[in-house]
């Protein structure tokens, strides 16, 4: 059994809606696909399988994946702001729910949140879990250029913790692209820094004390966190909201296996531990090579099975 925790399915109607926008985010049709402009610094070209369910299912078979945990990916509805963001979050979630209903043995879903208002976001969170059966929520590395520990987001996180489901972080248009804008360094470097910054700000915020059941998955083998955890410790412990040693908070994080090199995954395994790593492919932007890195990881077979599926089953209640 292999469960992919990091995979995307983009809602075609959302992309078509973005074509009609003059402000960011917006989209254009180009070369038979969509190019979505998330910010002035970055755009996303939709590859095969980003919207086409048949192509996604074929790729899953080719990669030997049994179940995919669907998220919508970038751009998220929160970039629209206000009621527009909350409206599209609901529409995206309905789309994901319909996909899961059509292929219940292949897919489960994590919901999108508009963050237009805390009240509507919490109502949508409740609907996703209690009515649609979603297993968690996607959280971007910043929310429409606001840091993740902004006070207006905290009630939403606390409610998600109460519901007992995790949040799965993903990069979005980064807060800082100075020296990187318009280049491959945005996904190559800025994405990794932005997710790490978002996670550390949440660790410093007191959220993990206020809501001990809050669970967060940090993508790309945890960004820089596993490797700079010792250095980050002082900054976590210096926050007035934290009450425990830094290791107490760092040990609460989960990560996916998308390391882009065997050495990075091996380092993550040694620092984080097999019980906190979940299999990910980043499909359709990833081609399954990350699965091969898990296949070759120097760990026990029981640990490998935990990464393949056991940890996801436990975390998501599958």
Task: State the gist of this model.
The protein is of the alpha/beta class.
Structural category: alpha/beta
**Which CATH class?**
Alpha Beta
Rounded to the nearest angstrom, the distance between the terminal CA atoms is: 12 Å
CATH homologous superfamily designation: Metal-dependent hydrolases
Mean pLDDT: 95
- Tell me the overall shape: globular
**Count of DSSP-assigned helices:** 13
Residue fraction in strands: 5-15%
Strand order of the largest sheet: 7-8-9-10-11
Main sheet specs: 5 strands, parallel
- Please give the domain count: 1
Within the CATH hierarchy, at the fold level, what is the topology? TIM Barrel
Give the low-pLDDT segments: none
The count of strands amounts to 11
Gyration radius from CA atoms, angstroms: 18 Å
What is the CATH architecture assignment? Answer: Alpha-Beta Barrel
The helix/strand order is EHEEEHEHEHEHEHHEHHHEHEHH
Helix content: 40-55%
Description:
The structure is a single chain. This protein has about 325 residues and is an alpha/beta fold. The chain has one domain: Metal-dependent hydrolases (TIM Barrel), CATH 3.20.20.140. About 45% of the residues lie in helices and about 15% in strands. The protein is built from 13 helices and eleven strands. It has helices at about 10-20, 55-65, 80-100, 120-130, 155-165, 185-205, 205-210, 220, 225-235, 245-250, 260-270, 290-295, 300-315; strands at about 5-10, 25-30, 35-40, 40-45, 65-70, 105-110, 135-140, 165-170, 215-220, 255, 275-280. Helix 4 (about 120-130) packs parallel to helix 5 (about 155-165) and helix 6 packs parallel to helix 9 (about 225-235). The longest helix is centred in the N-terminal third of the chain and has 21 residues, at about 80-100. The mean pLDDT is about 95.
């Amino acid at each position: 059994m292999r469960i992919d925790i990091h995979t995307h399915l983009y809602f075609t109607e959302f992309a078509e809606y973005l074509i009609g926008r003059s402000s960011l985010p917006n989209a254009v049709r180009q070369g038979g696909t969509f190019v979505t402009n998330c910010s002035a610094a970055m755009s996303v070209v939709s590859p095969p399988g980003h919207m086409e369910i048949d192509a996604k299912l074929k790729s899953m078979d080719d990669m030997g994946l049994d179940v995919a945990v669907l998220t919508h990916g970038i751009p998220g509805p929160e970039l629209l702001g206000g009621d527009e963001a909350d409206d599209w979050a609901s529409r995206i979630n309905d789309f994901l729910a319909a996909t899961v209903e059509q292929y219940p043995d292949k897919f489960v879903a994590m919901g999108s949140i508009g963050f237009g208002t805390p009240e509507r976001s919490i109502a949508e969170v409740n609907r996703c879990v209690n009515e649609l059966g979603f297993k968690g929520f996607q959280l971007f590395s910043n929310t429409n250029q606001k840091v993740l520990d902004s006070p207006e987001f905290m009630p939403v996180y606390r409610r998600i913790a109460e519901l007992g489901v995790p949040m799965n972080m993903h990069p979005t248009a980064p807060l800082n692209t100075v020296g990187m804008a318009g280049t491959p360094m945005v996904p190559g470097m800025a994405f990794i820094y932005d997710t790490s910054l978002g996670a550390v700000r949440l660790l410093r915020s007191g959220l993990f004390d206020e809501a001990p059941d809050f669970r967060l998955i940090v993508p790309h083998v945890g960004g820089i966190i596993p490797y700079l955890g010792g250095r980050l410790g002082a900054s976590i412990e210096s926050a007035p909201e934290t009450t425990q040693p830094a290791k107490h908070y760092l040990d609460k994080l989960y990560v996916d296996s998308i390391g882009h090199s065997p050495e990075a995954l091996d380092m993550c395994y040694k620092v984080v531990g097999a019980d906190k790593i979940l299999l990910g492919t980043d499909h359709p932007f990833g081609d399954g090579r990350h699965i091969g890195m898990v296949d070759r990881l120097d760990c026990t077979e029981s640990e490998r099975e935990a990464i393949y599926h056991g940890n996801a089953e436990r975390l998501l209640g599958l």
